[in-house]
Amino acid sequence: MRQPKIVIVGAGMTGILLTIKLREAGISDITVLEKAGKVGGTWRENRYPGVACDVPAHMYTYSFEYNPEWSDFFAKGDEIQQYFERVAEKYRVHDHIKFNQEVVKAERKDGQWYVHCKNGEDHQADFLIHATGILHHISLPDIDGLDSFKGEMFHTARWNHDIDFKGKRVGVIGTGSTAAQFIPELVNAGADVSVFQRTPQWLLSMGSQQYSEKDKAKMRARPSIIRRIRRRAEFGLEHIFTKAVTGQKLQGALLSWACKRYLRKSIKDPVLREKLTPNYTVGCKRVIINNTFYDAIQKPNAELVCEGIDRINEQGVLTKDGRQHDLDVLVLSTGFKPFNFMRPMTLMGRGGLHIDEAWNNKIQCYRSLLVPNFPNMFLMLGPYTPIGNFSVIAMSEVQTQYILKLVNAWRAEEFDELDVKQTAVEEFNQRMKEGIKKTTWVGGCQSWYQDEDGDPILWPFTWKQWCDEMAQVDYGDLSLEK
Known about the structure:
Layout: E1 6-9, H1 13-24, E2 30-33, H2 42-45, H3 77-90, E3 97-98, E4 103-109, E5 112-117, E6 122-125, E7 127-130, E8 152-155, E9 169-173, H4 177-188, E10 192-196, E11 203-204, H5 213-221, H6 223-245, H7 249-266, H8 270-275, E12 288-289, H9 293-297, E13 302-305, E14 309-312, E15 316-319, E16 324-326, E17 329-332, E18 346-348, H10 355-358, E19 377-379, H11 392-411, E20 417-420, H12 422-436, H13 463-470, E21 478-481
Parallel strand pairs: 1-2, 1-7, 2-3, 4-18, 7-19, 8-17, 9-10, 9-17, 10-13, 11-12
Antiparallel strand pairs: 4-5, 5-6, 14-15, 15-16, 20-21
């Protein structure tokens, strides 16, 4: 079998996985280009206080590399980063990584991919795989006067760890899952915290469990314990959570009841409870798994501000009711640009087609992986892959197996150049659009799930259906050239 040259962009969770699985398949010419100085992706970037994963920890691992060292049922960010560093070290992924190599251009010509890095280094490949993740390009709020604030201001993904927050007047813009994690940390650190809320969120408590050293020792000795925990977590997410948001009425009612009950039992003040009650369907925005925010927002050194921001000035925030909120620190918890994908690199496919031009009318892919006119290229975790709060590691593993089938077909000389038919892309995306109509994501909210047209770009069916469909390659949808 012939050996392909493969370039992977990104050494986060997916880049590590791809390298391991490609090597297991007997492929050795792999180059991973990482813009930063170490592996980890989003867990390297996000280091704010309280950062954690909202997927159960024992489910948030590679299926071939369990981790008995988790300290909590929902793992903290630093432990997740340590896990990926350990896995990369154990499987010698570093042998293939070139760190501090930001890709600025990738171009398809003469049957090859030519990849150019910011520092001037060039690479050539038969296959190009984007493992750039979803949440890493920060999004800043469009608020008048943002640059005029004289105090400390930063985005959560650029956290300033030098600040002692005790006694500081801190403003927080944003109330998503990140904010729900770090706001209690600031409140408990003694800061006076003003939370500027545009839209309330639905929260769900799933309990908390710490694993002692004795627990960890048992798991090291008996991996079957981890398998049981993992299976229970997968069952809950697949058969309750994912089905709830993809239109199953019984599961949807159960999720809605649980979130509303948690709010009602946690917030005693009816005025504050009303401010924290969303006016959209549970699950329209990503449900926040959190046990600490409701308690923190009721403390005397926390205030929920719902009047809307008029502008930011040198001293702080002026709200639309004319009230001035003087601040020492302003934290922007305003999320990321989820539809950048591999951009801002210049990506050019067949005939010099730029990715911005290809996606000018609509971001579209086939099976979240293949973009027409960009041959021998795969986009990991592309449009329609976030699946009902399921583990993105599991999603990447399924996609990796799909890619391996195609790469092995290339190795067997069944084709030289792989593309996807435009008709197949259109049929796939139309099916997704029809499926979305039955989900909670059209439940009357605005969320980061939605593209510029307001269409949610998520998988609208069950996890099982996604796995079943990805298990086989439909070669009738593909264009194979020799």
